[in-house]
Amino acid sequence: MVFIFAAAVAFNYKINKRFSIQSGLYYSSLGQKVDGINSFGGFQKYDYSKKGTINFEVLTTNGTIYTINADVFLVADGTGGRIITNFTKDVFDPNKASVLSILTPIHYTRTSATLMVPIILKYKVIDKVIDFNLYRRFIL
After folding, report:
1. Which domain holds residue 113?
2. Tens of pLDDT along 38-74?
3. d(CA 75, CA 89)
4. Do residues 74 and 57 both lie within one domain?
5. Are 67 and 52 in contact (CB under 8 A)?
6. What is the pTM of this model?
7. Domain shared by 65 and 46, yes or no
8. Could you tell me if 88 and 111 lie in one domain?
9. Domains in the chain: how many in total?
10. Are residues 21 and 76 in the same domain?
């Protein structure tokens, strides 16, 4: 499931009956809920890799998600091939260790949220029939 968060504040200033300017501040962010993955907490005491290394990679339709929390252990529930890790079942079994199952799904939000300021110049060539708009956006 993909989710989008967007918010905007806009204004329109009419200079005369033919010419107006519109602008505002627009924010948007795109995210995804990842199903089919069981997650466990309390893995950090079993993780002997270097700090800051990526233990798990999850393949999604929007790209790859990299874990940055060393306390989380991920297992695919039968979908196979979606999780790339060195901690396979023969190396570490979460059912035999004292890790807690986390029942919440994984929510992935892209870090590339967009904040932009558009400027739209509107000109009515012929009233209610033909308009001319000039659009420029500035991404912050």
Report:
1. 1-35+105-140
2. 788 888 877 766 666 778 888 877 778 887 777 788 8
3. 9
4. yes
5. no
6. 0.50
7. yes
8. no
9. 2
10. no
Task: Tokens for 130, please give them.
Answer: 């033909």
Per-residue buried b or exposed e for 107-140, using 16+ beta carbons within 10 Å of the residue's own CB: ebeeeeeeeeebebebeeeeeeeeeeeeeeeeee
Residues linked to residue 12 through DSSP beta bridges, in sequence order = 22
The Cα angle at residue 41 between residues 36 and 42, in degrees rounded to 5: 150
Same-domain pairing of 22 and 41: no
Residue pair 30/57 in contact (Cβ under 8 Å)? The answer is: no
Q: What is the pLDDT along the chain (140 residues), one digit of tens a residue?
A: 666 778 999 999 999 988 999 999 999 887 777 777 878 888 887 776 666 677 888 887 777 888 777 778 887 766 567 788 877 777 787 777 878 887 666 766 665 678 899 999 999 888 777 888 898 988 87
For residues 62 and 107, what is the distance between their CA atoms, to the nearest angstrom?
13
Tell me if 17 sits within 8 A of 6, measured CB to CB: no
Residues 17 and 56 grouped into a single domain? no
Residue with tokens 């695919």, as numbered in its chain: 76
